[in-house]
Write a structure and sequence with these properties.
The protein is of the alpha+beta class. The protein has helices at about 10-20, 90-105, 120, 165-175, 185-190, 240-250, 270, 295-300, 350-355, 360-365, 375-385, and strands at about 1-5, 45-50, 55-65, 70-85, 110-115, 130, 130-140, 155-160, 205-210, 215-225, 225-235, 255-260, 280, 285, 285-290, 305-315, 320-330, 330-335, 345, 370.
Length: about 400
């Protein structure tokens, strides 16, 4: 088996091979716009071949990730990972993943992210679940708000074709302040890559403007048989989110509203007169994080509690085991090798899970994944790793 980097000449082969791995057929040419793979950067891919025939694919997208503290860092988004059904369970996926992580390290990356189609696969490669998402379903007849505070802004209704520029600008403002959010490169908007609202599917777009006319939020939605489904609600402040929620919940000919990718711990349900008007479910994993350079990763993010921890980190996939002293002072971290006794022993995937603050270390201690070596180390770790608000990612790639 050979694994090689792809070029623009490999695009059609790459797209066809990945579709074959999924048991599907491409619905458009490989270089088409308005399809979910239109954002692929041909030079970032890997193609596994055997006897000259393609058998597997993997690539990554040039994204940025917002860390706690509003720090924005490069974050290659791993995607289009697939192996032909004739060659599964023969080590192809493992070999591609190992090559990809090595390449990313050589390129100077200190972390990678992905969305997992199967949760049992990527943990063994060192990825950990870092953000979660919900679906909120609200019956319209129960959707009265507890207070009737007037919105000082306004809402403009657009259709998807004319809204690209305003959607791109609002999303970019939002993602730079939201821990766990991933960027949407201009190329994706330009080529209609991904899922709605980036893809040019028929959607209505409700754009909220503040009292001074600045666009500060949007909701994209479609109505079918009485169910209004909101692809995403993006808002740079709570007032804009509430105004957009009121707008879709007051829509005529609607029996229920479904908010996809509803943020964890969002206050909207508390704003209803009946807390049970909104039903959460399912609760799903979303963004997975893989740390490639632990000291760089830990010193990159912002911190909100002073303290120190000794972390004993095992990385079985890359065959590495290291111990670090993490010291936090005035929002900044120092992370250096140490031979001190550890406070926590953990796998690199568990460090990825707690990295953005979406999962507490004590949860993974109780689950048996992390070992706490003294009575208060898990509590200290919870305080140290917390973020300013729960991380959330709703970008699909």
């Amino acid at each position: 088996m050979e694994i090689r980097q792809t070029s623009a000449d490999d695009l059609a082969t790459f797209v066809e091979t990945f579709h074959a791995a999924l048991g599907r057929f491409p619905e458009a040419p490989a270089d088409a716009t308005g399809v979910w793979w239109a954002g692929i950067e041909a030079h970032r891919g890997l193609l596994a071949t055997q006897d000259g025939r393609p058998i597997g694919t993997a690539t990554s997208c040039s994204f940025e990730l917002t860390l706690p503290g509003g720090v924005v860092v490069p974050a290659p988004g791993v995607t289009c990972v697939g192996v032909l059904p004739t060659h599964r369970r023969q080590g192809v996926l493992t070999a591609m993943s190992r090559r990809q992580l090595a390449d990313l390290r050589d390129q100077g990356e200190f972390l990678a992210v992905l969305l997992a189609s199967e949760a049992t696969i990527y943990g063994r490669f060192g990825y950990g679940i870092a953000t979660y998402s919900h679906r909120l379903t609200v019956q319209r007849h129960q959707a009265a708000f507890r207070t009737n505070t007037a919105d000082t802004g306004s809402i403009e209704l657009l259709t998807r074709p004319g809204a690209t520029e305003v959607l791109e600008k609002i999303y970019d403002r939002y993602r730079r302040a939201q821990p766990g959010a991933v960027s949407r490169p201009h190329r994706w908007w330009e080529r209609g890559a991904g899922q709605p609202p980036i893809a040019p599917a028929d959607r209505y777009v409700a754009v909220h403007r503040s009292s001074d006319g600045l666009p500060d939020g949007y909701a994209t939605y479609a109505l079918d048989n009485g169910t209004l489904t909101v692809d995403e609600t993006i808002a740079t402040n709570d007032s804009a989110f509430t105004a957009l929620a009121r707008f879709v919940l007051s829509h005529d000919l609607v029996t229920q509203v479904v908010f996809k990718h509803f943020p964890p711990e969002h206050p909207l349900r508390w704003q209803f007169a009946d807390f049970n008007a909104g039903v959460l479910g399912p609760h799903m994993d979303w963004l997975w994080v893989r740390l490639l350079d632990i000291p760089r990763a830990l010193t990159a993010r912002g911190w909100f509690t002073d303290g120190e921890l000794v972390l004993d980190v095992d990385d079985p996939f890359l065959g590495e085991h290291n111990r670090y002293l993490l010291t936090i002072h005035n929002g900044h971290a120092e992370c250096v090798p140490t031979d001190r006794e550890p406070d926590l022993s953990l796998d690199v995937r568990d460090l990825g899970s707690i990295y953005l603050g979406g999962t507490t270390p004590s949860t993974l201690v109780r689950a048996g994944h992390i070992k706490a070596h003294n009575g208060n180390s898990a509590t200290r770790a919870d305080a140290i790793f917390r973020a300013e608000r729960p991380p959330h990612c709703l970008h699909w790639f």
